[in-house]
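FAQ

Q: What does a record look like?
A: Structure on top, sequence underneath. For example:
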């Protein structure tokens, strides 16, 4: 399993920096800001595996976020600060931030903390609206509940793929289900579930502060939602697009796992965000 994980990480990009950041692209054919892909909760850079082949010509950074890269987990502010340090280390002045689910909250916080550094946002099934925090989220943020759930998921790993797909509202074909199962297995191997409880508490504690400041986000944004998303419901994503000053809303027929269900359409929306930020 470990060998399979490493192989999938290598296929996620052409090279790595310090084993944590994957730099992906062929010959650079497009001028403009770099694009950073921020995975959800839990996750890894390899979550973008099906999307990457559709992003040729872009300068990409695909990091494992804090908690999934061997460094301590933290909330949105912690993740945004780590992201900005990573941009500094890569010599990137401005970037388009692509955030899936919880990663969208990181992108929003970075846009609030360093507006001059963020050229545009692409938010996919993203948190950020007050409507994105459900009763279940609040329960999982309780000490003991979230960590217990994380331990259970870590033990069951790839066997949870059918349940994860169903509860996300996603309809996956056999290859997509296999990708999800392998991803869940990787999360267990890397200890990714250990960051789950920390980030769940941050969603409840820090999320409302981000939601109250959405009007301050200066970057143009593309908000893309799955019409069957059962994790971050469509009404939350419509609310997010309404409250962001420079946002356009896109609809895809899918659930929360659009990076698996509709990778080509997700990539097309990434390209649209790059156009807005260039």
């Amino acid at each position: 399993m470990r060998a399979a994980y490493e192989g999938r990480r290598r296929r996620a990009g052409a090279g790595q920096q310090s084993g944590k950041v994957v730099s992906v692209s062929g010959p650079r054919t497009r001028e403009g800001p770099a694009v950073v892909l921020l995975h959800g909760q839990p996750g890894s850079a390899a979550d973008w595996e099906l999307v990457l082949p559709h992003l040729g010509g872009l300068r990409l950074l695909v990091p494992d976020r804090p908690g999934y890269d061997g460094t301590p987990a933290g909330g949105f502010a912690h993740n945004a600060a780590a992201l900005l340090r990573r941009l500094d280390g890569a010599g990137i002045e401005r970037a388009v931030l692509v955030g899936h689910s919880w990663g969208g909250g990181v992108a929003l916080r970075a846009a609030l903390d360093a507006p001059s550094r963020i050229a545009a946002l692409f938010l996919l099934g993203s948190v950020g609206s007050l409507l994105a925090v459900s009763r279940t989220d609040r329960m999982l943020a309780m000490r003991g509940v979230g960590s217990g759930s994380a331990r259970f998921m870590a033990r069951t790993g790839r066997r949870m793929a059918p349940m994860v797909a169903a509860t996300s509202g996603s309809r996956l074909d056999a290859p997509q289900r296999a990708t999800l199962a392998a991803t869940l297995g990787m999360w267990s191997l890397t200890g990714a579930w250990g960051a789950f409880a920390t980030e769940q508490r941050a969603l409840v504690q820090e999320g409302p502060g981000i939601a109250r400041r959405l009007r301050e986000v200066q970057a143009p944004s593309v908000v893309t939602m799955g019409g069957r998303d059962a994790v971050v419901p469509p009404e939350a994503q419509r609310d997010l697009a309404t409250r962001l000053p420079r946002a356009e809303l896109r609809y895809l027929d899918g659930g929360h796992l659009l990076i698996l269900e509709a990778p080509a359409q997700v990539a097309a929306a990434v390209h649209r965000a790059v156009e807005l930020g260039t």
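Q: Is there anything notable about this one?
A: The first strand starts at residue 15 and ends at 17.
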